[in-house]
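Lecture 7 notes: from sequence to structure.
We start with the chain below.
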Amino acid sequence: MKLTNTRDPINSTDFRYEGREIVETDTLEKKKEQRQSIIDSKRPGDESDPNSKKMMSAGWTDLMLKQAASIASKVKADAILVNMETSADIIPFLKAEGKKFKVIVVTKNELSLEKVTDLKCNTIKLPDVYLTRDGYLKFSFLAGISKGILFKDDILVCVGGQIEKGYMDTIMILKVGDESEIVSFAEESPFPKNIKPDIFESLLTLLMEMAYEGREGRPIGTTFVLGDHEKVLQYSHQLVFNPFQGHPEDILHITKPEVRETVKEFSSIDGAFIIRDDGVVLAAGRYLNAAHHGEPMPQGLGARHSSAAAITGVTDSVALVISESTGKVTIFRGGSIVTTIEKTTSPTQKPVPII
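Predicted C-alpha coordinates for the same chain:
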Protein backbone atom coordinates (compact mmCIF):
# COMPACT_ATOMS: atom_id res chain seq x y z
CA MET A 1 0.00 0.00 0.00
CA LYS A 2 1.20 3.45 -0.88
CA LEU A 3 0.56 6.87 0.73
CA THR A 4 0.67 9.94 -1.49
CA ASN A 5 0.37 13.58 -0.37
CA THR A 6 -1.80 15.55 -2.78
CA ARG A 7 -1.46 19.03 -1.13
CA ASP A 8 1.10 21.33 0.30
CA PRO A 9 2.16 19.62 3.55
CA ILE A 10 2.45 22.95 5.34
CA ASN A 11 -1.17 23.95 4.79
CA SER A 12 -2.95 20.60 4.90
CA THR A 13 -2.87 16.96 5.94
CA ASP A 14 -4.97 15.65 3.00
CA PHE A 15 -3.82 12.17 1.99
CA ARG A 16 -4.91 9.56 -0.60
CA TYR A 17 -4.87 5.98 0.59
CA GLU A 18 -5.53 3.19 -1.96
CA GLY A 19 -7.54 5.56 -4.10
CA ARG A 20 -9.73 6.78 -1.24
CA GLU A 21 -9.23 10.33 0.15
CA ILE A 22 -8.85 10.63 3.91
CA VAL A 23 -9.15 14.22 5.16
CA GLU A 24 -7.96 15.00 8.72
CA THR A 25 -8.77 18.20 10.67
CA ASP A 26 -6.48 21.03 9.75
CA THR A 27 -4.60 22.13 12.90
CA LEU A 28 -3.03 25.27 11.53
CA GLU A 29 -5.95 27.54 12.41
CA LYS A 30 -6.03 26.15 15.97
CA LYS A 31 -2.35 26.96 16.37
CA LYS A 32 -2.96 30.50 15.14
CA GLU A 33 -5.79 30.92 17.65
CA GLN A 34 -3.61 29.66 20.48
CA ARG A 35 -0.83 32.06 19.53
CA GLN A 36 -3.32 34.96 19.43
CA SER A 37 -4.72 33.92 22.83
CA ILE A 38 -1.24 34.20 24.32
CA ILE A 39 -0.80 37.64 22.76
CA ASP A 40 -4.16 38.78 24.16
CA SER A 41 -3.28 37.36 27.64
CA LYS A 42 -6.17 34.91 27.43
CA ARG A 43 -6.20 31.23 28.13
CA PRO A 44 -8.00 28.82 25.81
CA GLY A 45 -11.51 28.23 27.06
CA ASP A 46 -11.83 31.54 28.96
CA GLU A 47 -14.57 32.88 26.70
CA SER A 48 -16.60 29.67 26.84
CA ASP A 49 -16.36 29.30 30.65
CA PRO A 50 -18.39 32.02 32.41
CA ASN A 51 -17.01 30.96 35.81
CA SER A 52 -13.43 31.64 34.73
CA LYS A 53 -13.86 35.42 34.69
CA LYS A 54 -12.68 37.21 37.85
CA MET A 55 -14.90 39.68 39.62
CA MET A 56 -13.74 43.26 39.15
CA SER A 57 -12.75 45.05 42.37
CA ALA A 58 -15.54 47.58 41.81
CA GLY A 59 -18.01 44.79 42.53
CA TRP A 60 -16.40 43.77 45.80
CA THR A 61 -18.26 46.39 47.84
CA ASP A 62 -21.69 44.85 47.30
CA LEU A 63 -20.32 41.39 48.13
CA MET A 64 -18.60 42.65 51.30
CA LEU A 65 -21.77 44.37 52.52
CA LYS A 66 -23.91 41.28 52.00
CA GLN A 67 -21.41 39.08 53.81
CA ALA A 68 -21.06 41.61 56.65
CA ALA A 69 -24.83 41.58 57.23
CA SER A 70 -24.86 37.78 57.18
CA ILE A 71 -22.00 37.58 59.67
CA ALA A 72 -23.58 40.21 61.92
CA SER A 73 -26.76 38.15 62.05
CA LYS A 74 -24.91 34.93 62.89
CA VAL A 75 -22.71 36.40 65.67
CA LYS A 76 -25.50 38.59 67.09
CA ALA A 77 -23.43 41.72 66.53
CA ASP A 78 -24.31 44.94 68.33
CA ALA A 79 -23.48 47.07 65.29
CA ILE A 80 -22.10 47.15 61.76
CA LEU A 81 -19.46 49.79 61.03
CA VAL A 82 -19.23 50.72 57.35
CA ASN A 83 -17.52 53.46 55.38
CA MET A 84 -19.10 55.62 52.68
CA GLU A 85 -15.92 56.29 50.70
CA THR A 86 -16.82 53.99 47.83
CA SER A 87 -17.78 54.38 44.20
CA ALA A 88 -20.69 52.00 44.77
CA ASP A 89 -24.10 53.19 46.00
CA ILE A 90 -24.51 51.70 49.48
CA ILE A 91 -27.66 53.64 50.39
CA PRO A 92 -29.92 50.62 49.57
CA PHE A 93 -27.84 48.53 51.99
CA LEU A 94 -28.16 51.17 54.71
CA LYS A 95 -31.91 51.42 54.22
CA ALA A 96 -32.37 47.65 54.40
CA GLU A 97 -29.90 46.70 57.13
CA GLY A 98 -30.54 49.83 59.21
CA LYS A 99 -33.85 48.25 60.19
CA LYS A 100 -32.11 45.13 61.53
CA PHE A 101 -28.84 46.41 62.99
CA LYS A 102 -27.32 49.51 64.50
CA VAL A 103 -25.28 50.86 61.59
CA ILE A 104 -22.38 53.26 62.09
CA VAL A 105 -21.34 55.17 58.97
CA VAL A 106 -17.83 56.63 58.87
CA THR A 107 -16.77 59.05 56.16
CA LYS A 108 -14.52 61.99 55.31
CA ASN A 109 -17.09 63.47 52.97
CA GLU A 110 -19.70 66.03 54.05
CA LEU A 111 -21.85 65.05 51.06
CA SER A 112 -21.89 61.44 52.26
CA LEU A 113 -23.06 62.60 55.68
CA GLU A 114 -25.90 64.54 54.04
CA LYS A 115 -26.97 61.42 52.13
CA VAL A 116 -27.63 59.49 55.34
CA THR A 117 -29.24 62.35 57.27
CA ASP A 118 -32.73 60.90 56.89
CA LEU A 119 -31.62 57.32 57.58
CA LYS A 120 -31.42 55.74 61.00
CA CYS A 121 -27.65 55.64 61.05
CA ASN A 122 -25.01 56.84 63.47
CA THR A 123 -22.30 58.89 61.76
CA ILE A 124 -18.64 59.61 62.43
CA LYS A 125 -16.70 62.24 60.47
CA LEU A 126 -13.17 61.09 59.72
CA PRO A 127 -10.26 63.55 59.51
CA ASP A 128 -9.33 64.44 55.95
CA VAL A 129 -5.88 62.87 56.15
CA TYR A 130 -4.32 59.69 54.80
CA LEU A 131 -4.26 56.88 57.38
CA THR A 132 -3.79 53.14 57.40
CA ARG A 133 -6.82 50.84 57.61
CA ASP A 134 -6.13 50.41 61.33
CA GLY A 135 -5.81 54.17 61.68
CA TYR A 136 -9.31 54.79 60.31
CA LEU A 137 -10.65 51.98 62.48
CA LYS A 138 -8.99 53.32 65.65
CA PHE A 139 -10.33 56.81 65.03
CA SER A 140 -13.83 55.39 64.47
CA PHE A 141 -13.64 53.34 67.67
CA LEU A 142 -12.50 56.31 69.76
CA ALA A 143 -15.13 58.64 68.30
CA GLY A 144 -17.84 56.00 68.66
CA ILE A 145 -16.98 55.36 72.31
CA SER A 146 -16.86 59.08 73.13
CA LYS A 147 -20.23 59.61 71.41
CA GLY A 148 -21.81 56.80 73.40
CA ILE A 149 -22.68 54.67 70.35
CA LEU A 150 -20.06 52.03 71.13
CA PHE A 151 -19.55 50.41 74.52
CA LYS A 152 -17.12 48.01 76.11
CA ASP A 153 -17.75 44.37 75.11
CA ASP A 154 -19.90 45.35 72.09
CA ILE A 155 -19.44 42.95 69.17
CA LEU A 156 -18.83 44.91 66.01
CA VAL A 157 -18.65 43.81 62.36
CA CYS A 158 -16.46 46.26 60.46
CA VAL A 159 -16.53 46.35 56.68
CA GLY A 160 -14.16 48.59 54.77
CA GLY A 161 -10.78 48.79 53.14
CA GLN A 162 -8.26 51.36 52.03
CA ILE A 163 -10.68 54.27 51.77
CA GLU A 164 -8.78 56.12 49.03
CA LYS A 165 -9.18 53.12 46.69
CA GLY A 166 -12.95 53.56 46.58
CA TYR A 167 -14.03 49.99 47.34
CA MET A 168 -14.30 47.62 50.28
CA ASP A 169 -12.16 44.53 50.62
CA THR A 170 -12.06 43.65 54.33
CA ILE A 171 -14.43 42.31 57.00
CA MET A 172 -13.41 42.20 60.67
CA ILE A 173 -15.25 41.01 63.78
CA LEU A 174 -14.10 42.88 66.89
CA LYS A 175 -15.08 43.08 70.54
CA VAL A 176 -14.78 46.63 71.82
CA GLY A 177 -12.16 46.92 74.56
CA ASP A 178 -10.64 43.48 73.97
CA GLU A 179 -8.54 44.35 70.94
CA SER A 180 -5.36 45.86 72.40
CA GLU A 181 -4.05 46.53 68.89
CA ILE A 182 -7.07 48.75 68.18
CA VAL A 183 -8.29 50.33 71.44
CA SER A 184 -7.57 48.94 74.89
CA PHE A 185 -9.13 50.06 78.16
CA ALA A 186 -10.09 48.40 81.42
CA GLU A 187 -12.94 50.66 82.54
CA GLU A 188 -16.37 51.14 80.99
CA SER A 189 -15.04 54.07 78.96
CA PRO A 190 -11.55 55.43 78.28
CA PHE A 191 -12.83 59.01 78.63
CA PRO A 192 -13.69 61.21 81.63
CA LYS A 193 -17.45 61.61 82.03
CA ASN A 194 -17.40 65.42 81.82
CA ILE A 195 -15.73 65.55 78.41
CA LYS A 196 -18.20 66.24 75.62
CA PRO A 197 -17.96 63.86 72.64
CA ASP A 198 -17.75 66.63 70.05
CA ILE A 199 -14.85 68.22 71.95
CA PHE A 200 -12.79 65.04 72.01
CA GLU A 201 -13.59 64.25 68.37
CA SER A 202 -12.66 67.79 67.30
CA LEU A 203 -9.39 67.66 69.27
CA LEU A 204 -8.44 64.24 67.90
CA THR A 205 -9.13 65.47 64.36
CA LEU A 206 -6.89 68.50 64.99
CA LEU A 207 -4.06 66.27 66.20
CA MET A 208 -4.35 63.99 63.17
CA GLU A 209 -4.14 67.04 60.90
CA MET A 210 -1.13 68.39 62.77
CA ALA A 211 0.65 65.01 62.74
CA TYR A 212 -0.03 64.59 59.03
CA GLU A 213 0.67 68.12 57.80
CA GLY A 214 3.34 69.28 60.26
CA ARG A 215 4.00 73.00 60.37
CA GLU A 216 5.71 74.78 57.49
CA GLY A 217 7.04 71.47 56.25
CA ARG A 218 8.47 70.40 59.58
CA PRO A 219 7.24 67.63 61.95
CA ILE A 220 5.38 68.61 65.11
CA GLY A 221 5.79 67.15 68.57
CA THR A 222 3.44 68.29 71.33
CA THR A 223 1.02 67.27 74.10
CA PHE A 224 -2.64 68.11 74.80
CA VAL A 225 -4.30 67.44 78.16
CA LEU A 226 -8.10 67.49 78.13
CA GLY A 227 -10.30 67.55 81.25
CA ASP A 228 -9.91 68.02 85.03
CA HIS A 229 -8.18 71.33 84.32
CA GLU A 230 -7.96 72.60 87.89
CA LYS A 231 -6.00 69.59 89.08
CA VAL A 232 -3.92 69.49 85.89
CA LEU A 233 -2.91 73.11 86.49
CA GLN A 234 -1.87 72.18 90.03
CA TYR A 235 0.41 69.47 88.66
CA SER A 236 2.03 71.78 86.11
CA HIS A 237 3.69 75.17 85.74
CA GLN A 238 4.21 77.69 82.98
CA LEU A 239 7.45 77.41 81.00
CA VAL A 240 6.87 80.45 78.79
CA PHE A 241 4.37 83.29 78.55
CA ASN A 242 0.86 81.85 78.15
CA PRO A 243 -0.49 83.11 74.79
CA PHE A 244 -4.09 82.24 75.74
CA GLN A 245 -4.20 84.08 79.06
CA GLY A 246 -6.35 87.21 79.36
CA HIS A 247 -8.57 86.54 76.33
CA PRO A 248 -12.37 86.10 76.54
CA GLU A 249 -13.25 82.41 76.88
CA ASP A 250 -15.85 82.55 74.12
CA ILE A 251 -13.09 83.09 71.53
CA LEU A 252 -10.82 80.33 72.84
CA HIS A 253 -12.95 77.31 71.95
CA ILE A 254 -11.02 74.47 70.29
CA THR A 255 -13.70 74.00 67.62
CA LYS A 256 -13.21 77.53 66.25
CA PRO A 257 -11.08 77.57 63.06
CA GLU A 258 -9.05 80.59 64.19
CA VAL A 259 -8.22 78.92 67.51
CA ARG A 260 -7.15 75.73 65.74
CA GLU A 261 -4.78 77.76 63.56
CA THR A 262 -3.43 79.54 66.64
CA VAL A 263 -2.81 76.20 68.32
CA LYS A 264 -0.87 75.04 65.26
CA GLU A 265 1.22 78.23 65.40
CA PHE A 266 2.18 77.67 69.05
CA SER A 267 2.71 73.92 68.70
CA SER A 268 6.46 74.40 68.33
CA ILE A 269 6.94 75.84 71.84
CA ASP A 270 7.96 73.54 74.68
CA GLY A 271 5.29 72.27 77.04
CA ALA A 272 1.71 71.06 76.87
CA PHE A 273 -1.63 72.58 75.91
CA ILE A 274 -4.25 72.48 78.67
CA ILE A 275 -7.87 72.29 77.51
CA ARG A 276 -10.94 72.48 79.70
CA ASP A 277 -13.53 69.73 79.35
CA ASP A 278 -15.88 72.16 77.55
CA GLY A 279 -13.24 72.86 74.87
CA VAL A 280 -11.74 76.16 76.07
CA VAL A 281 -7.96 76.34 75.54
CA LEU A 282 -6.54 77.57 78.86
CA ALA A 283 -2.80 77.43 78.33
CA ALA A 284 0.12 76.49 76.11
CA GLY A 285 3.75 75.94 77.06
CA ARG A 286 2.85 74.16 80.30
CA TYR A 287 5.39 71.85 81.97
CA LEU A 288 3.77 68.74 83.50
CA ASN A 289 5.22 68.04 86.96
CA ALA A 290 3.59 64.68 87.74
CA ALA A 291 6.00 61.75 88.01
CA HIS A 292 5.29 58.57 86.12
CA HIS A 293 5.10 55.50 88.39
CA GLY A 294 3.30 53.13 86.05
CA GLU A 295 4.59 50.55 83.61
CA PRO A 296 7.67 51.53 81.58
CA MET A 297 6.92 53.25 78.28
CA PRO A 298 7.29 51.12 75.14
CA GLN A 299 10.61 51.45 73.37
CA GLY A 300 10.82 54.65 71.32
CA LEU A 301 8.60 56.76 73.59
CA GLY A 302 10.38 59.44 75.58
CA ALA A 303 9.85 62.15 78.21
CA ARG A 304 6.86 63.71 76.45
CA HIS A 305 4.95 60.43 76.56
CA SER A 306 6.01 59.65 80.14
CA SER A 307 4.74 63.02 81.37
CA ALA A 308 1.46 62.51 79.50
CA ALA A 309 1.00 59.10 81.10
CA ALA A 310 1.87 60.54 84.52
CA ILE A 311 -0.62 63.44 84.39
CA THR A 312 -3.47 61.07 83.46
CA GLY A 313 -2.47 58.82 86.33
CA VAL A 314 -3.05 61.52 88.98
CA THR A 315 -5.91 63.43 87.33
CA ASP A 316 -9.23 62.58 85.66
CA SER A 317 -7.98 63.67 82.25
CA VAL A 318 -7.03 62.26 78.87
CA ALA A 319 -3.75 63.18 77.17
CA LEU A 320 -2.99 63.11 73.46
CA VAL A 321 0.63 63.21 72.25
CA ILE A 322 2.13 63.74 68.79
CA SER A 323 5.57 62.20 68.40
CA GLU A 324 7.91 64.55 66.56
CA SER A 325 10.11 61.73 65.29
CA THR A 326 7.38 59.40 63.97
CA GLY A 327 4.19 61.46 63.72
CA LYS A 328 2.29 58.85 65.77
CA VAL A 329 -0.60 60.06 67.92
CA THR A 330 -0.72 58.29 71.29
CA ILE A 331 -3.66 58.59 73.69
CA PHE A 332 -3.29 58.11 77.45
CA ARG A 333 -5.87 57.56 80.16
CA GLY A 334 -5.34 56.45 83.75
CA GLY A 335 -1.58 56.32 83.27
CA SER A 336 -1.79 53.81 80.39
CA ILE A 337 -1.89 53.88 76.60
CA VAL A 338 -5.39 53.60 75.16
CA THR A 339 -4.23 53.44 71.54
CA THR A 340 -1.65 54.70 69.06
CA ILE A 341 -2.60 55.92 65.59
CA GLU A 342 0.16 55.64 63.03
CA LYS A 343 1.00 58.43 60.64
CA THR A 344 1.08 57.24 57.02
CA THR A 345 2.44 59.06 54.01
CA SER A 346 0.00 59.50 51.15
CA PRO A 347 0.86 57.66 47.91
CA THR A 348 1.31 61.09 46.27
CA GLN A 349 3.23 62.65 49.16
CA LYS A 350 6.91 62.18 49.92
CA PRO A 351 7.97 61.83 53.55
CA VAL A 352 9.43 64.97 55.13
CA PRO A 353 13.05 64.33 56.12
CA ILE A 354 13.98 64.90 59.74
CA ILE A 355 17.36 66.61 60.22
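Points to note: The first helix runs from residue 28 to 39. The chain has three domains: 3-52, 57-175, 197-341.
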